[in-house]
Amino acid sequence: MAQHADNAYYVPHATRWPIVGSLGMIIMLASAAYWLNGASAARWSFLLGVAILVFMVFGWFGQVIRESERGVYNEQVDSSFRLGMAWFIFSEIMFFACFFGALFYARALVVPWLGGEGSGAATNEYLWPGYVPHWPTNGPGEVGGDFQTIPAFGIPFVNTLILLTSGVTITLAHHALKAARRTPLILWLAATVLLGLVFVVLQVEEYLEAYQVLGLTLGSGIYGSTFFMLTGFHGLHVSLGAIILLVIMLRSMRGHFTPDSHFAFEAAAWYWHFVDVVWLGLFIFVYVL
Amino acid sequence: MSSIAAHESDALRMPDAQADHKPHGFLDRWLFTTNHKDIGTLYLVFSLLMFLVGGTMALVIRAELFMPGLQLVEPDFFNQMTTMHALIMVFGAVMPAWVGFANWMIPMMIGAPDMALPRMNNWSFWILPFAFAMLLSTLFMDSGGPAAGWTLYPPLSLQTGPSFAFVVFAVHMMGISSIMGSINVIATIMNMRAPGMTLLRMPLFVWTWLITAYLLMAVMPVLAGAVTMLLTDHFFGTSFFNAAGGGDPVMFQHIFWFFGHPEVYIMILPAFGVISEILPTFSRKPLFGYAAMVYATASIAFLSFIVWAHHMFTVGMPLEGELFFMYATMLIAVPTGVKVFNWVSTMWKGAMTFETPMLFALGFVVLFTIGGLSGLMLSIAAADLQYHDTYFVVAHFHYVLVPGSVFALMAGTYYWLPKWTGRMYSERWGKTHFWLSAIFVNVLFFPQHFLGLAGMPRRIPDYSPQFADFNQWSSIGGFLFGATQLIFVGVIVHCVWFSRKPARARVWESARGLEWTVPSPAPYHTFAEPPDIDESMVVHADEVSH
């Protein structure tokens, strides 16, 4: 159980940021829905919603950072933040688990059943005669047409090395922070952000090749669906992680964090490692196997 | 007194026990609040509103089903009503109501000043009104709201018109709200307990909510993923649920119910907690088998992850799958049985009195058990081929949800309303509310068992004439049950604004637990400093062996 510093609790004042966030969220999502339904003018209100959300994040986190730097958080608050971040990452893991589950279910069960295995004999014979199960596949209807896959030991392997290296650089930054060595801290953070950026650029390159050369698109049956949704959501998380690390870097340059009080740094590092581990799963199950 | 906030008076406040720190403007108080009691009140009021909205939709359904043939509404609108009724009751009424209870009671029960993350707490709530505004707005769109059932099974749900994207995004928002709420509950319970409030001294309501929060963290993201796949299948040409592309509509059912089965425990575990608080108080005995109750709750939560496909026995699973999910499901009867027997043993030889909370708790034990037993019948895969998608299933889950979760919510409301408001509610009207509810809920749902066993399918606006009698009983029961709930609203309004009878700190003479050691109404900040927990404050002191 947490220690109660000074035998008193921390309770923040009323806040306006949540309602701003809710407004931004509803404007963004309702606009997205109208946009999907063909009202392309809704893209502008969508951007407005995104802008409000970004404004909210700046305002809210800015307030928390200012309070933190003024030393108003006690150990108990620190523990609450740690628990919050850890369980947020757990929920993210479950989100990815959902898409990995879809990949495994499709590969291990659906595709063989469509090919007549197990209890799928009649399915194959009457609905999809002649379909021979294989992977990668775009299904018996060959949805999306012919496609080729991205070879694992090209860009994906390079990206694996990049993310693994970034896991090392963030750890070196952490060691520098704990040793109160500000310059290496900033440099290693910069290296990490840069590696994240290179990863994203390479992935964009990979997507362009998939769409323009290989014929592999989001519409390429179950392979294209799982491939792009898994790598796409991962790419979004890498981008978000890189932005978080960039903020941490800028804060380090302003002299934030001390060797024994730097939870924001650790939270960013946790998030970065989570993104890293998800990628290893992707590399193995989406690209290699 | 401390350096923490003394120089931060603009951004922070230091609560002290009796000072009134309530913000005074209406917006300051309700829109910007970080206070767990205010946010709890917002949740509870919102859920009551949604309960009435969802209930009105149920009455549309029951009105149409009063007679065979099509009388009142178009079949498509009927389908919209069944879909929206479920979405609103599950995500808008029952779940937010339990979060409201968690907000109000958990800090008070563990000796904390507030929730661990008060600002995020505000956001968890204030997402919900927007999410439900968006969901309800679909009813007014040209193509109408979603009509494929709350389970959103493809390919049917993919035929939803323009409202589809709105529904998916509304579900995303509800998920974000639930995840933030659960993070807050976990952080509060793990980090904010007063010294001496060890895990196995926590009131059972706190325990059941802790486990519920873990369930929510694990499954809400999965629901988000499932509806995201629906969205991309609908708008972006993916093939997750399209067999031609190598996907499978059944895969959606697996993913959905991986969320959906723990979801039903999310709605009932806090109910178990509330009942476990109320029965000891009015039996004047400590809860029988406190530790067993904790372990049973955890076992139920674990099992809830490995039984999902019992919702899909007729979908064409391999035989091994049917058998596994059948036996795993039956296993849940064991920890649930532990709970029911412990509740009965708690009452055994107790000096029982029958105030309104106790009446609802007793109604819960009896009627929830009926729902549990019909669940056991449904778990038999071979028999379920007959029951599947009939009114028997409707009867089953309404027994566990209405005289189950909803009765527990009402029991909890009557139990703690004097603590919340500082005034006593009208016992006479409370009891009237209970007896009418208990009678009409059975008139409403019991005949549905017979309808289902005789083969009446669910989610169809018309039926064969031989089902007419039982449907008329059910509809009459439904309207009377609905009308009875207006008494509930009346009792609350009376208690909050008009009652002249003040409540004592310890509202019920043998109630134990920290919430009864503070005045009624509870001060705006319950505990400015960690209270010292001694054995007499602990609800289940006799069970603590260390």
CATH class of the largest domain in chain A: Mainly Alpha
- Residues in helix, % of chain A: over 70%
Could you say which overall geometry of chain A the principal axes of the C-alpha atoms support?
A: globular
Structural class of chain A: mainly alpha
Q: Supply the number of structural domains of chain A.
A: 2
Overall pLDDT score of chain B:
92
Structural commentary:
The complex is a heterodimer of chains A (about 290) and B (about 550). Chain A is mainly α. Chain A folds into 2 domains: about 1-75, Helix Hairpins (Orthogonal Bundle), CATH 1.10.287; about 75-290, Cytochrome c oxidase, subunit III, four-helix bundle (Four Helix Bundle (Hemerythrin (Met), subunit A), Up-down Bundle). Helices cover about 75% and strands about 0% of the residues of chain A. In chain A, helix 1 packs antiparallel against helix 2, helix 5 (about 155-180) packs antiparallel against helix 8 and helix 6 runs antiparallel to helix 7. The model of chain A is unreliable at about 1-5 (pLDDT under 50). Helices cover about 65% and strands about 0% of the residues of chain B. Chain B is built from 15 helices and 1 strand, in the order E-H-H-H-H-H-H-H-H-H-H-H-H-H-H-H. The two termini of chain B are about 35 Å apart. Chains A and B meet through strand 1, helix 1, helix 2, helix 3 and helix 7 of A and strand 1, helix 4, helix 5, helix 6 and helix 7 of B.
Characteristic key phrases:
heterodimer; A: 289 residues; mainly alpha; Helix Hairpins; Four Helix Bundle (Hemerythrin (Met), subunit A); 8 helices; 73% helix; disordered N terminus; B: 546 residues; 15 helices
